[in-house]
Here is the input.
Amino acid sequence: MSQQTNYFKHGYGSVPRAFILCTEDLAIPLEFQLWMIQNAGINDVEEIKGADHMAMFSESQELCDSLLLLASKYA
Here is the structure.
């Protein structure tokens, strides 16, 4: 994929970014999720083992816990 970006440091680059990694996502394979993490300037990664593409259904409590943890870090 291209390394060119349309984002600017003063906009998108000025806020911390988090990623919730879903280990059983069949729509976005793990390898591509890892590529997105490496190439999007992600500051924090939460992994949810067993979560599929719809983590809010497959691992709802774990997703809620991850979102609360991230919110407490960046609020």
